């Protein structure tokens, strides 16, 4: 039985994304903040954007973020040098991002799958 690795909308394989200016940084500590990430990654080149992903209700870190460099070569150097480095007690995983921008949150509030009786009521 094969395992699907999935692809991004640009056709990149999620397990082996194409080199890009955008790096995904995973396994961050909840203590890690934007300033810490900027210090770690800023030594490799000019950063265009840096985003630590937070829970939209609690504003706690979701323990991952994205760093977009101005130049792809800087992103490549940073990926090579920072992947596996320990920051705030956690070993970082750094990889190219499948997309070059953050995903937009879906509108509305998800309340679970509609039950049959809810579906029937809406059809009337």
From TrEMBL:
Limits of the RRM domain: 21-99
Bias kind Polar residues: ranges: 1-14
Skewed-composition ranges (Basic and acidic residues): 114-124
Pfam families reported for this sequence: RRM_1
SMART domains according to UniProt: RRM (SM00360)
Family matches, as InterPro entries: Nucleotide-bd_a/b_plait_sf, RBD_domain_sf, RBM, RRM_dom
The keyword Electron transport is annotated on this UniProt entry: no
Top-rank lineage group of the source organism: Eukaryota
Keyword vocabulary terms for this entry: RNA-binding
Name the UniProt record assigns to this protein: RRM domain-containing protein
């Amino acid at each position: 039985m094969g395992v699907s690795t999935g692809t991004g909308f640009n056709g990149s394989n999620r397990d082996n994304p194409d080199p890009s200016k955008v790096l995904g940084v995973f396994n961050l500590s909840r203590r890690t903040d934007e300033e810490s990430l900027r210090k770690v990654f800023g030594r490799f080149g000019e950063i265009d954007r840096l985003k630590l992903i937070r829970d939209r209700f609690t504003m706690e870190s979701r323990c991952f973020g994205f760093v977009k460099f101005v130049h792809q070569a800087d992103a490549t150097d940073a990926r090579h040098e920072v992947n596996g480095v320990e920051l705030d007690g956690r070993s970082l995983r750094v990889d190219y991002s499948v997309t070059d921008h953050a995903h937009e949150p879906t509108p509305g509030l998800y309340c679970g799958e509609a039950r049959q009786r809810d579906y029937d009521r809406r059809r009337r």
